[in-house]
Specification:
The structure is a single chain. The chain is of the alpha+beta class and 295 residues long. Helices cover 61% and strands 13% of the residues. The protein has helices at residues 10-13, 16-37, 46-58, 62-81, 83-102, 112-132, 140-151, 155-174, 176-197, 213-223, 257-270; strands at 203-209, 229-238, 241-256, 275-280. α6 (112-132) packs parallel to α9 and α7 crosses α8 (155-174). The chain is elongated, with a radius of gyration of 24 Å. It starts with 9 loop residues before the first helix and ends in a 15-residue tail after the last strand. 35% of the residues are buried.
């Protein structure tokens, strides 16, 4: 386990790229909440959804609610991910609270389907940009990470379980129709968040089996600058000639979505009969993944 830093990396917090991503992300979240969701009593998942629910029932200021309900999760974030992450997330929570308190504009639409789709996408994009900046805009993700370590469920299962309770409360308070549309909003947000967080840089494991494996190895390493792993295998075992088999190399490399298409096109030129298959992976680190520009 890596050691969590106990000092604040102010250079990381005030890096221009992170500041811009965070500000744009918060702006999208405020637009989604003010322009689509809150005026029409639509919920998202997590702390933001809980804040909307409490706001509609008690009429307490939403900005204050979202700040107060998120702050306790900062202690978990500090413990799990370090103090720099906690400070970045606190800044994000403060920006959301400030924007929701002092910026006022009319609802963009009252159409339930448009609210569910566009409101969800906007808040998902906003949260994804905040994650890109090194923070989170909703403390539920930190809670899910801690719960995962304690009970063994994965993060998506924990978040889904917590949000199921939230949407049941929404059905009781606002009616089943609004609750169902809120579920659509939530899934729109999840998809948008996932794409912004990983996007075209989501890593994919590409496996290649070819009679021209040496040429393909050279292509991947020298032209694309990717690392490869070779798995020794056997090919053959066809129904009409089960006894026939030959040794082969299974070439494995980790690529992004953009690189995947280019590499597959080049492989097809070398060997149109090459067998390839891909596996989407959640995370990859170490080795030669890509050249990262250092701050």
């Amino acid at each position: 386990m890596h050691k969590i830093s106990k000092t604040i990396d102010w250079k990381e917090i005030f890096h221009l790229k992170n500041i811009i991503l965070n500000l744009i992300g918060v702006a999208f979240i405020i637009l989604a909440l003010k322009g689509f969701m809150i005026p029409n009593k639509f919920l998202d998942g997590g702390v933001i959804g809980i804040s909307i629910l409490i706001h509609e029932v008690t009429h307490w200021p939403f900005g204050i609610l979202v700040l107060l309900l998120n702050v306790p999760f900062l202690f978990l974030g500090h413990r799990l991910l370090g103090i720099t992450f906690a400070v970045q997330s606190l800044i994000t929570f403060l920006l959301i609270a400030f924007g929701m308190t002092f910026f006022h504009f009319d609802a963009v639409t009252s159409d339930p389907l448009l609210i569910a789709l566009f409101g969800g996408c906007l808040i998902g994009v906003g949260m994804g940009l905040c994650i890109r900046s090194g923070a989170v805009a909703d403390g539920i993700e930190i809670l899910a990470l801690l719960t995962t370590r304690k009970i063994g469920l994965n993060v998506s299962e924990v978040i889904f379980a917590l949000n199921t309770l939230l949407f049941l409360a929404a059905a009781w308070t606002f009616g089943i129709g609004t609750a169902l549309y809120s579920i659509v909003t939530y899934f729109s947000a999840v998809k948008a968040l996932d794409y912004i967080s990983h996007g075209v840089e989501q890593y994919t494991a590409l496996h290649i089996i070819s009679s021209k494996s040496e040429e393909i190895k050279e292509l991947i390493v020298k032209k694309f600058g990717k690392g490869i792993t070779i798995i020794k295998g056997e090919r053959g075992y066809l129904p009409e000639s089960f006894e026939v088999k030959v040794d082969c190399d299974v070439i494995v490399t980790i690529v992004t979505r953009l690189e995947l298409l280019r590499i597959k096109d080049e492989i097809e030129i070398i060997d149109p009969q090459a067998f390839t298959y891909i596996q989407f992976i959640k995370e990859a680190s170490g080795g030669i993944l890509r050249v990262r520009r250092k701050h």
